[in-house]
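I can't quite decide. Please look over this sequence plus structure tokens:

:::
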Amino acid sequence: MENGPIPKAVKFHPVVAKFGTRTRGMTAYLLSQEEMINKNYPVKGMPGFEEFVCTDSVECVSDSSPLYGLDCEMGNELTRVSLVDSDGNCVLDDLVKPDTRILNYMTKFSGITAAILRPVTTTLREVRAKLMALIPRDAVLVGHSINSDLTALKLIHRHLIDTALLYRKEFGQKFKLKVLTEMILKRQIQTDEKKGHHPTEDAVAALELAQYFIKTGPRKVVEHHLEELWGYTIEEEIIELPAPTPSHRFADILQTLGRSVAFIGKRSDVALDLSRQQWLNSDKQVLASFRRQAECPFLSVLQLSSLSDHLKRCVPHREQQYHRVCANLRDMCVVFAGPFPAGFTQKEAKRLFRRCGPVRKIKMLNTSIRVHAEVEFELLEGATLALKTLNGLSLQGQSIKVQRPVYESMLDVDLTLDALAHDALETSHLYAVRSKPSVTERINNSAKINGNTLDAKCPGAAWVKTANGSHSAKGNEKRLQLETELSEESLTETFGHFGAVERIILPARAGKHKRHAYIKFESPEVKHAALSSSGDPRMEDYLICPSLTPPHLHSWAALTPSKVDTEGGDEGSGHMHVSSQDQEIELAVGKLDRCLGKLFRCLPECTLSVVVLLGHESADDPRPGLCFMEIKSGSR
């Protein structure tokens, strides 16, 4: 069968293309050092693995060397290690005490709970030493994506087989261990009846998959499972297959066009020509190497890994810091207001404050004497406008005071808001919210009567009651609904009188009346002209202020409420608790920022610079990353 004609479906199959058609011994399927380096397996002497421990293995192994199956359970931390011998007998199955606190055990997948780990005292160092004592010097370790297991163990072993790379798919895709076990070994693992994965079961599955592949040979493995596993049939291949689809990866296209592409960084799993890669240990070395180049490549990929490496070492603290930052952002969107007239309701308070922007929630504070309210806006601009336009407003002859909360986190809020207002991304942006004409007129009159002069940059608009307690615009609510809703056309027409309008950004939520918007002008001068237009009759129905909310914060702010509420609600709000780890992260960010500044300054003119800060992908807790782009010009 091995010497017969080879069908095209088999001949060009990725398994056969890699391993050939002949049945060979175990050593033919060992990962080479080059493969391990390219795919970021722990390798002695490579950057990033300086703290890893090496097993005492022989230089070369034979086809008769013992094969051991290895599997670990880990989320953010290693929690369990299993090792089986060549016969599938379990020789090690130990729970591991994590080095740091685990916030999410991912029990559905790991089977690990806090109760299971509570009595465990075995450390990573101890279980690793135990594992190394059990592995013969000439042993070959096999696992499914075994690089993850070795990384969790901080262990280096030179003789490896990875079943994820034996049963390979096109374009570097991999089968799940569960699928391979069901299709090849005809049994099920990781089933719904079981709570989480069992590492011993997974280690045995990886061992038997490797043994079957070695015994059967790559050609027969493909022919026997071509349809059920890879979805092809030999008969279909009588038809000529179309030419392979050319790669559309940016780096590949550039290399096809003869453009130079280079990678400088710590990791080695970037699919570029090895001759164009430089593997270095620190951001300082990466920067120095790039600056030493006589001529910049057409595309340079630089990995500055100091910040990400630091964050990986403090995962639990990073979670706490994220929720604290969300709480601080919430504090910046909160104002306290009062006292209100007796009987003033939450609905009336919302109707009043939403004239400054969308309100997330209002909490009425009924003291023993008077009524106050805690108002949380969705946007920073809403709180700012409320302070400027509603503080000192008269309601039924009673003046209300609007102020920010006095929290530790708010001590430097004025400096923070000033920095946001003068950010390079916000220099030409304006925030505008539209109120009803009748409301605007009454609020202006009320302000004049009470001696409260509204900020020149923020023409007055709010909700008031007349002396007899009736709502001044309630009867006209439906009639004026269309008048207060904003559109790109109406905003462009109104604000276009001050200069060219580049873009209008309206809220994207369906079913909501659009009362606020961000306006981007052609230049900062046009924006300042609009801010100085308090006497312009066209602006009587608008509240405006400089834009404060960075564009990327809209997606993050959408995640804030649930995070804050679930992580302790309002308890301890405003307490910053700056720790040494906070200071270390701040120093790491500052160091990265200075490094990027030096890098940007040494770039040639007209170079496009793209800085990517990776996000965090998770089904339960996704967090977006950040991408900054800038073309270097003579003024920068």
